[in-house]
């Protein structure tokens, strides 16, 4: 859409304003400015940079609040423009506020809400835009937005549960690494100075630990750089096509954590599929969107392969059943939904069941991981302490050996 640079004066104060506005034509731009109580002094079209996208990434929590409030306002009979203006005024997040204002100006200029949302792909993904577009076409925008808000709330709640489950072991692991480095750099050299005066051969575990301490002391910076390069190389690798395929294929096979990761992807798949089908989006477009939002390359390839079979006339459950990444329970529920014409409800039930299983697994993991981490800390720290005290336990032989 063309961008017009303008010079205008406020009708109330006479203050001169220089800015730009997007509109389909120059007349539409002037009309838009007049609606804002601005008298146009000069206006001309300017070329916009191709591919320019306004706004930035929006937090999922802010997106949930925006969607729920927008659905409530539209359901109450407030126009989209008025609702967007109200939400922009009360949103504390600057990125979200600027994004909403840009969407509002585009809707005022004649774009549909879904078209305006496509201008901000960092904030609104294809799933969001597709559901809003389906709601606009079917005249059920408020209802679709409410469903979308519920979907986003469930995703946000699941994400927070996973983060909380990972926070404790991550913190303990970092603390264990810091304590280990401190012992190697500060404590063990003290024992080394004491034992060196005996002149006797130390036990093998003690010698190994002293050697490791010397390596850490002399090459500490290089070890940190090496670890940093290793982490960077791994993150770079999993961002490549082959790396992401390798990691996505392996992470769902990991013990315990792989089961959780697989169930999270399945819950996202079933809930997204249910929401889009219920919103009236065509099935092939649904599968195309779901494949890009499922969060796993293995499942993405399976869904795209199944969509080709569905396009040739095969059923959804039969097409997805060819791929082992989808469990038998999900396929059977899909088949039952196809037979009863109630796929969306069946998928929603599967998503809720998977959420409950994920929550149960995470709760069990949290109760199990605490004693395991205590044992881990005991083995690492206690092992180092025992290794350094072995010569003291055998002090008589060490001293006599030195003599």
Terminal CA distance: 92 Å
The helix content is over 70%
Across the major sheet, the strand order is 2-1-3
| Beta strand count | 3
**Low-confidence runs of at least 5 consecutive residues:** 47-54
Number of separate helices: 17
Q: Tell me the major beta sheet.
A: 3 strands, antiparallel
Average predicted confidence as pLDDT = 81
Order of helices and strands: EEHEHHHHHHHHHHHHHHHH
Structure, described:
This protein is mostly helical. It is built from 17 helices and three strands. It has helices spanning 26-35, 60-75, 80-90, 94-108, 113-118, 126-138, 141-196, 204-218, 220-239, 241-251, 257-278, 283-293, 297-311, 316-321, 328-340, 343-393, 395-402, and strands at 3-10, 16-22, 38-46. Strand 1 (3-10) and strand 2 form a beta hairpin. Helix 2 (60-75) packs across helix 3 (80-90), helix 3 (80-90) packs antiparallel against helix 4 and helix 12 (283-293) runs antiparallel to helix 13. The longest helix is centred in the middle third of the chain and has 56 residues, at 141-196. The chain is extended and about 95 Å long.
